[in-house]
Design a protein that fits this description.
The chain has 12 helices and 13 strands. By secondary structure, the protein is an alpha/beta fold. The protein has one domain: Alpha-Beta Barrel (TIM Barrel), CATH 3.20.20.140. An 8-stranded parallel β-sheet has the order 2-3-4-5-6-7-8-9. The protein has a 3-stranded antiparallel β-sheet with strand order 1-10-13. Helix 3 runs parallel beside helix 4. The model has no long low-confidence stretch (mean pLDDT 97). Bound molecules: (4S)-2,6-dioxohexahydropyrimidine-4-carboxylic acid (DOR) and zinc ion. The site of (4S)-2,6-dioxohexahydropyrimidine-4-carboxylic acid has 10 residues, from loops.
């Protein structure tokens, strides 16, 4: 039995840092485990230009603890009026690593997202030509579509056409939650990949709704039924290079989650690697963990793998019910539970 695991330092290919005090409070958790992270641009106002992204990157870097090496990889929030020249320049200057498609009103701070996906096809065309990765929140937003069907419907209404229309565009189908998404990614060419969060590997929708509403298990896309969770686990541990780590760590203060209209998002950063490794361990696939966490992401983005390593050991760790954050408190993913792995460093 493997009790100590040493792997190349991983990266987090999708998360939210926010801004201000919350950002300063959460960045150290991610920088402790990961060398790089794809940072979502859904601030208020959203990060829509290269200059906004460059400034945001500086604020994040200022929050990285002394002596820690951490590189934030910035994304451009696509809108109906995205300036493709600014995006291309930002990518050429090394400010933007990717651009993010939020269908308008799909999730937190997405009101400025794209109202009609076909409107930004010219931007996709430019991204394809420049080799800029497209990160996709893949859910339709129509009121008539059931929330549990929104990801599958997005594939049929939009993603198939995007991928067919721009065959060389690199697309990351983010935080996938369904077997439909797994199948779509598997059927697509090598330029279509997906990130998978720890929560969607651990829980199905019962964890959100049985025994009372569990706001700390609520995120978007919502967890689906068990058959989908099992499909995600198979994909994650398969060793297929199309699937890689992206926590979607999305900090919301405790009071904003435990509310009559609770925010969507799970704060996965503090125990992220422990959480994922527990799944790989349960699946008898510890040998596949390094490629999921540390190798597939850089390969897809065309970036080098990290030079240093991290160590995890088998040990019981009690995850605190809540953590102090910005003079307030936040509930981490696995809060109040005991997990079977410890991040050594
Ligand atoms: O649960 C989520 N929270 N899903 C998202 O897509 C956005 C995120 C957030 O920003 O809070
Ligand atoms: Zn997200």
């Amino acid at each position: 039995m493997t009790d100590i695991l040493t792997i190349r330092r991983p990266d987090d290919w999708h998360l939210h840092f926010r801004d201000g005090d919350i950002m300063r409070g959460v960045v150290p958790y991610t920088a402790r485990q990961f060398a790089r992270a794809i940072v979502m641009p859904n601030l208020t106002p959203p990060v829509t230009t290269a200059s906004m992204a460059a400034e945001y990157r500086e604020r994040i870097l200022a929050a990285v603890p002394e002596g820690v090496n951490f590189t934030p990889l910035m994304t451009c929030y696509l809108t109906d009026t995205t300036d493709a020249d600014d995006l291309a320049r930002g990518a050429a200057d090394g400010v933007f690593t990717a651009a993010k498609l939020y269908p308008a009103n799909a999730t937190t701070n997405s009101a400025h997202g794209v109202s009609d996906v076909s409107k930004i096809y010219p931007v996709f065309e430019r991204m394809e030509a420049e080799g800029i990765v497209l990160c996709v929140h893949g859910e339709v937003t129509s009121a008539d579509i059931d929330v549990f069907d929104r990801e599958a419907e997005f594939i049929e209404r939009h993603l198939r056409d995007i991928v067919a229309s721009f065959p060389k565009l690199k697309v990351v189908f983010e935080h996938i939650t369904t077997s439909d998404a797994v199948d779509f990614v598997l059927e697509s060419g090598p330029n279509v990949a997906a990130t998978i969060t720890p929560q969607h590997l651990h829980i199905n929708r019962n964890a959100m709704l049985v025994g009372g509403i569990q706001p700390h298990n609520y995120c978007l896309p919502v967890a689906k039924r068990e058959s989908h969770r099992l499909a995600l686990r198979r994909a994650a541990v398969s060793g297929n290079a199309k699937f890689f780590l992206g926590t979607d760590s999305a900090p919301h203060l405790r009071g904003d989650k435990e509310s009559a209209c609770g925010c969507a998002g799970i704060f996965g950063a503090p125990y992220a690697l422990e959480s994922y490794l527990t799944v790989f361990d349960e699946e008898g696939a510890i040998d596949k963990f390094e490629c999921f966490a540390s190798l597939h992401g850089p390969a897809f983005y065309g970036l080098p793998v990290n030079d240093d390593t991290v160590v995890l050991e088998r040990a019981e760790v009690e995850v605190p019910q809540s953590l102090p954050l910005a003079g307030n408190e936040i509930v981490p993913w696995h809060g109040g539970q005991t997990i079977g792995w410890r991040f050594v460093g």
